[in-house]
Design a protein that fits this description.
817 residues, alpha+beta, six-stranded antiparallel sheet, five-stranded parallel sheet, 60% helix
Length: 817
């Protein structure tokens, strides 16, 4: 499959965007958010994703690329050829979502449905899953390459199968003979050339060339380097001559300009120098005159203000003293009022304690065991009564014979006779006895005799009476009430005592009582604290005014003293004012006759400064002019016989020869790789060619000899350099992981294409984490891979795109250069 053109008809944010692909490297370049990743997704789904899908599959694959908010489908059109000789590309049109379309037009016929994907799969060199894993590489997937293929042995098995099928016809020529002849040609071309590093062996460039056994490639390389050295030397000599000529012209112009200025303004400079000095003197006299005038005006005013300031300070000082005395008196009155309040509060608290003590004493105490004893006896008496009265006996007595004698005794009552002719119902609490002519019937509801229970009950009643008389209180309930009341009075007494302690604090009540007992009618608020606050406020204001008045007085004292120290007295000051005015008038008259100021200058000082600067620069300008003449003559003498233009033509020829030799060299290397692939069929391990391809790409991309350890899954997992210990792939730096992954991708792709079926390798920004040196090496490896294969390189970095100067360029967004 060779890509020709992709159009995102309506795919995510892309609409009507088309990209044409070249046969070798196509660089799709554009800024971030210009649509490169979306274009990558459109290409991937155009090749691998049928439009007939379940709703779940559609949501998980293509639905997010349906333009929002209105569209319910995404659409793309892909043109591709089966091989390089196919001049009539196939066109596949796919619309996912509503109104799905899956059509492929090729050779004048149109197919649709599931046959479209079958036709596309037939154009792929490997199975669709392997194609997606090997040939479609987005940026996020790159550094997961090793882990990805380590966990997918089926992909490597498919590539191994392709390697086994790689063949080459030799027309009866033995592999050994053909290989030997090929090696001789390669040696003739690559003698003393380091193929892995693509440079002379041991780095011996034109400064230290190989003298013998130079191959065609190295010879062409040396010829180009010599031509470039000659071009650099010729260019350097011509540049130096041009620079020397420019410097000479600049030095001549500078010297002429300075000489003309100095000559033209010499006389004016002499006259204006005196004028500048007089201007300085005039300005100084004016400054002194203004200062003296100000002093003349200020001196008498300051003396008058000083007298007033002295009076204000004296007056405010007296007021402050009066307020301080009043404040002290107010404070004493406030303190006495506070002591009076404290005395009254303590006295009230003491009265409260006395009242609480009297209340407590008014409740007689109750013996500690009174309540318990009374409660115990009352409880026992209640139990005895309950036992005595518990239950009722009911007996009905009747006789069938009228002559029988019936006697009945109930509880503790005496016996009585009953009329035997009449039935009698008897009731008793505990005891019934019926006697009928020698027959005695006794009914008793308790084990203890009734008389004993009665005696016990009467004894408990007496015990309760004795206990009440002994404690002086009738019942346990009354005793409990008295205990509770006495406890309440005790709590009141304790609370009053605590309040007294809190009010009294550290105060001496006896002293306070001695002070205020005879003055009980005195009002503690006679001198209100508010009066003290007013006095304090007035005192603060007066003190502030006194401070300001004192500062003002001191300032005026210093001002008057300074005037007297500088000028003596006011008469001397006025004499100095007259002298300054006279001197200034005389100097102004002299200045009016001075030299005129040249045009272009704002003041005489500016002109004099400029003139003196130019005059000082003239010797250096003349010296620089002479030195420039010497350098120009030396550059002219050093100019070579051959011009840079001639050298550039020689470089062009040498580049063309080197390019021709490189093409031949690449052909020989590719031929040797084909031979090695054919011979590798005879080896037990078909992965040998993949290992060799990977080693070659890794060395080329890294400019360092890495050795790789391959895991059981058929992918390299650990790497080592001669100067570093072996590290697992995951512990390499990000940039190194990227070049390892890119080398493995290129090796896999080249191995997979050994069957001869073409396929595009699509790389999305693989250079992001590479340093400049590795980017150049990686670009060279990709360009070499793409000499016979198709590569699509997507990037948002214009400098990455510029590493492929001969590539077909497909700009997206604003990067169009």
């Amino acid at each position: 499959m060779i890509l020709k053109r992709l159009e995102a008809v309506s795919f995510a944010a892309l609409s009507g965007i088309a990209v044409d692909f070249g046969p070798s490297v196509t660089v799709v370049v554009g800024p971030n958010e210009s649509g490169k990743s979306t274009l990558f997704a459109a290409l991937r789904h155009s090749i691998l994703t049928p439009t007939r899908q379940t709703p779940t599959t559609y949501r998980n694959t293509v639905e997010r690329y349906a333009p929002r908010p209105d569209s319910t489908s995404a659409e793309a059109v892909l043109e591709f050829a089966i091989d390089a000789a196919d001049d009539r590309p196939a066109v596949v049109r796919r619309r996912w979502g509503e109104a799905a379309v899956d059509e492929l037009s090729a050779a004048g016929s149109v197919i649709s449905g599931e046959a479209v994907q079958e036709r596309i799969n037939a154009a792929l060199p490997v199975a669709p899953g392997t194609f997606a894993g090997v040939f479609l590489v987005d940026q996020a997937q790159l550094d997961r390459t090793i882990d990805q293929f380590s966990g997918r042995p089926e992909t490597l098995e498919e590539i191994v199968s392709l390697l086994r099928r790689a063949t080459s016809a030799s027309d009866g020529v033995s592999a050994e003979r053909f290989t030997r002849a090929l090696d001789e040609q390669i040696e003739a071309v690559f003698a003393h050339w380091d193929i892995e590093r693509d440079r002379p062996e041991k780095g011996r460039g034109i400064e230290n060339p190989w003298a013998r056994g130079v191959g065609a490639l190295l010879g062409a390389y040396y010829d180009l380097e010599r031509a470039r050295a000659d071009l650099r030397e010729a260019t350097r000599a011509e540049d130096e001559l041009a620079a020397a000529a420019s410097a000479l012209a600049d030095a001549e112009a500078t010297t002429l300009r300075i000489e003309s200025f100095v000559t033209e303004h010499r006389s004016a400079a002499a006259g204006l120098a005196r004028s500048v000095e007089m201007d300085r003197q005039i300005e100084s006299l004016r400054t002194d005159l203004e200062s003296v005038r100000g002093a003349v005006r200020r001196w008498p005013v300051a003396v008058d203000e000083l007298a007033r300031a002295d009076a204000d300070a004296e007056r405010l000082g007296a007021q402050v003293h009066e307020l301080e005395v009043a404040y002290s008196q107010a404070g004493a009155a406030r303190d006495r009022a506070e002591r009076m309040q404290t005395y009254r509060a303590i006295r009230a608290a003491r009265d409260e304690v006395a009242a609480a003590q009297a209340g407590f004493d008014a409740v007689p105490p109750v013996a500690d065991d009174a309540v318990a004893t009374l409660q115990r006896v009352e409880s026992q008496l209640a139990d005895a009564k309950a036992t005595l009265t518990t239950g009722d006996l009911s007996v009905t007595v009747s006789s069938q014979t009228a002559g029988n004698r019936v006697t009945v005794t109930t509880d503790s009552e005496p016996p009585r006779e009953l009329d035997p002719t009449q039935p009698v119902s008897l009731r008793a609490s505990r005891h019934v006895q019926v006697d009928i002519d020698g027959v005695s019937i006794i009914v008793d509801n308790g084990a203890r005799p009734y008389a004993e229970l009665v005696a016990e009950y009467q004894a408990l009643e007496q015990q309760l009476t004795d206990a009440a008389a002994g404690y002086g209180i009738a019942t346990s309930a009354l005793a409990a009430e008295r205990v509770a009341e006495r406890a309440s009075r005790d709590a009141d007494l304790r609370a009053a005592t605590r309040r007294l302690a809190a009010v009294a604090g550290e105060h001496d009540f006896d002293a306070l009582e001695a002070e205020f007992a005879t003055d009980g009618s005195a009002d503690p608020h006679t001198t209100a604290p508010a009066s003290e606050r007013d006095i304090a406020q007035q005192l603060g204001t007066r003190r502030q005014e006194l401070g300001e008045a004192t500062a003002r007085r001191d300032q005026l004292h210093r001002e008057v003293d300074a005037l007297a120290q500088r000028y003596g007295d006011q008469d001397a000051l006025e004499d100095r004012l007259v002298r300054l005015k006279s001197d200034l008038d005389a100097l102004k008259a002299e200045r009016a006759d001075a030299a005129a100021l040249p045009e272009g200058f704002a003041s005489g000082e500016e002109f004099i400064d400029r003139y003196r600067t130019m005059e000082g620069e003239l010797p250096a300008a003349r010296t620089a002019h002479a030195d420039a003449r010497v350098r120009h003559a030396a550059s002219l003498a050093a100019l070579g016989e051959v011009s840079s233009e001639s050298c550039r033509a020689v470089v062009t020829d040498a580049q063309a020869r080197l390019a021709s030799v490189r093409r031949r060299a690449d052909t020989l290397l590719r031929l040797r790789r084909v031979v090695e692939e054919v011979r590798a069929e005879e080896q037990d391990d078909p992965l040998t060619s993949l290992v060799d391809l990977f080693a070659g790409y890794l060395a080329e991309l890294s400019a360092t000899t890495y050795t790789a350890s391959w895991g059981d899954g058929g992918a390299p997992v650990a790497f080592a350099r001669s100067d570093r210990p072996e590290l697992h792939y995951r512990f390499l730096s990000q940039g190194t992981r990227d070049i390892v992954a890119l080398a493995f991708r290129l090796a896999l792709a080249e191995a997979a294409l050994g069957s001869g079926v073409p396929a595009p390798l699509v790389l999305d920004d693989p250079f992001v984490d590479l340093d400049p040196e590795r980017r150049v090496a990686a670009a060279a490896a990709i360009a070499r891979y793409a000499r016979t294969r198709q590569v699509v390189f997507m990037t948002c970095h214009p400098d990455h795109a510029d590493l492929f100067p001969d590539a077909h360029r497909a700009p997206i967004g604003s990067f169009t250069r």
